[in-house]
Amino acid sequence: MTPDKTLQASVVAELTGDPSINSAHIGVGVNEGVVTLSGVVDSFSEKWEAERAAKRVQGVRALAVELKVQLQSTAERSDSDLARAAISALQWTRQLPAKALHVLVEDGNMTLSGVVHWDFQREAALATVRHLQGLRNLTDEIAVKPQINCSAVAADIERALQRRAHGDARRISVAVQGATVTLSGEVDSWAEHGLALQAAWNTPGVRHVHDELSFD
């Protein structure tokens, strides 16, 4: 059997062995390690599970998902009902900040957007709505922007100065507004000045650093 045929058989076996997937309606094509899934599934969650199953198979170089979600009549719901269900489910998800996400639904296709501070929050949001009845497709436009903490930035600066035996970080003040960090206070040397700025820039989420440091 050729490598592609062997890989095809492995993917089919993985799909067949997953109870959340009706593999009888899914076709599997393989060309030089690129797997294509085609056919019809009853829900977006089944489509997602099929994609996950194929990715689990060793030897899959790339995956093309051409599965169509064809909802049963009993699973149909209006866009407004689906949007309300999503908003309600997200509100009950403890990991998510209040009103952090926005929901857009058009013809059963849902887009989640907004900003969270951690990737696990993005994953939690997607998992919350992925299995909603009536969903045809889910688009992830959630941005992950880490929250910047003043004490964390100050601690990073202090550790950087201690490693190089430069100055006293307690003379440096740290202020945070959004993704901008402002450093003020006094430093003894250009070396201490550079270390403080570098430590601020190295903090996840920082996009701007205002330098208001002066020399003693």
Q: What multimeric state do the chains show?
A: single chain
Strand order of the largest sheet: 1-2-3
Radius of gyration: 25 Å
Strands, total number: 9
**Low-confidence blocks of residues:** none
Rounded mean pLDDT score: 89
Taking the sheet with the most strands, its summary is: 3 strands, mixed
Structural class: alpha/beta
Instruction: Assign an overall shape.
Output: elongated
**Secondary-structure element order, as H and E?**
HEEHEHEEHEHEEHE
Distance between the termini: 76 Å
Estimate percent helicity: 25-40%
Task: Tell me what portion of residues adopts beta-strand conformation.
Answer: 25-35%
Count every helix, treating DSSP H or I runs of 4 or more residues as helices. 6
Sequence-ordered SSE layout with sheet pairings:
Layout lengths: L2 H14 L9 E6 L2 E8 L2 H12 L6 E8 L9 H13 L9 E6 L2 E8 L2 H11 L7 E8 L5 H15 L7 E6 L2 E8 L2 H12 L6 E8 L1
Helix pairs in contact: 5-6
Which descriptors apply to this entry?
3-stranded mixed β-sheet; 216 residues; 6 helices; alpha/beta; single chain
What features would you describe in this structure?
This protein is of the alpha/beta class and 216 residues long. The protein is built from 6 helices and 9 strands. The strands form 3 sheets. It has a 3-stranded mixed β-sheet with strand order 1-2-3. A 3-stranded mixed β-sheet has the order 4-5-6, with helices on one face. It has a 3-stranded mixed β-sheet with strand order 7-8-9. Helix 6 (190-201) links the parallel strand 8 (180-187) and strand 9 (208-215). Helix 5 crosses helix 6.
